[in-house]
Each structure stands twice: as structure tokens, then as C-alpha cells.
Amino acid sequence: AQSVTQPDIHITVSEGASLELRCNYSYGATPYLFWYVQSPGQGLQLLLKYFSGDTLVQGIKGFEAEFKRSQSSFNLRKPSVHWSDAAEYFCAVGGNFGNEKLTFGTGTRLTIIP
Amino acid sequence: EAGVAQSPRYKIIEKRQSVAFWCNPISGHATLYWYQQILGQGPKLLIQFQNNGVVDDSQLPKDRFSAERLKGVDSTLKIQPAKLEDSAVYLCASTNKAGRWNTGELFFGEGSRLTVL
To answer: ∠ at Cα A87 (A84, A92), nearest 5°?
Structure first.
């Protein structure tokens, strides 16, 4: 069965500092990987996705993520965070057989301090 | 383009009562999902529809939960009778892709928050 682990429940960073959110997945074949962001009281919004090809993927809002098959990881990064980045971030895994249902991690809450 | 619409946004009921949530996906989106998000956890899939057919309801507690998408557009999720552990946010999501082209890029509504007392 597929699964996702986000080891950090809560991360606090200063505005302007760099950010890395960790994600490890378990999947028996080549996975589809996603990062979604959820602002308070809002639904989830897709930040970026990895299907195949270049292992460094770019997303919206200046985020990027790197797929590392050897480490079963898909960490999310941003070089300089903004106060508006404060939110809950979810990593998700799906298969590549179509009709995908996603398995989400438990999320990492990001707090930005001035 | 209008997003995924859900109602009500908030609902408080007592245990053993019933509740229904409504979702209207983005126009033209064939695939619709209901997810349950318990506080402190990630969303968990309850049911997936493709048009008006059920693709996956393996994690739906069918003794108390039901869902339908009769005309392949909007959908209703019902809980009867509710239990304390059903307190959660119920998220509806949709995608315009179906079958083998559905790769999991979903559009989510703002959710319906249920509190069971």
C-alpha cells in the first residue's frame, strides 16, 4: 500500500529565510508525487507535481521540489519565504495507472516570523 | 472559472443525528472525490466518482455514510447516524480528467466543517 511520511509537524522560519519541507513516500512502482498547500479555512491548492523526467520540478509561488528515488523523498524548497507562505503543506503520492486516488501525508504547518 | 463549491461551510449536530453536504464541481469535470480531513491529519479518500458511477468507495463507512452523483454533476454526501469521530472537514475535489488520463491533479473546494457533539 502506498504511504507518505512528513516527519515535521510544525516548522517556524523567519521571513526571507530558506525553507525545506521533508516528504518520504512508499510506493511499489514509479510514483506520481504532489505538494498541495492549504491556507486557513481554504481548500487545498496544487503547488507542483512530479510525473517523470527532470527530477527537479518547479511550481507556483516560487516553490520547487526534488524527486530522489534512492531516498524515496520529494522535499519541497523555497529560497526565500514570504509571510503569505504561512499555511499547511501536504505531500501526496499516487500511482501511474490512471484514475488516481491520492494518499496524503499528515501535513507540515509552516509559521513565518517577521 | 468558478471553483468547486461546497455547502454548508459549517455544521454542528448532535451524535446520532443526520447531516448532508453538497458539492458542485468545476463545470465539465468528470471525476469527483470526497475526502475526510480529521484535525491534525491529511485528507483521506472516502469516495471517487467518474461521471455518475462510483470508481472507488473502499474507504467509505457504508453503514453510516452514503454519497451520490445522480446526474454526473453535483454530489451529496450524507452521514446517518453521525458519531463523535465523524467530526472533520469534508473536502470535495474534482478533475477534468478521467480513467487512464486522471493523474491526480485535483481542484479542491473550501470544505464543510462538521462538529458532532
So the answer is: 130
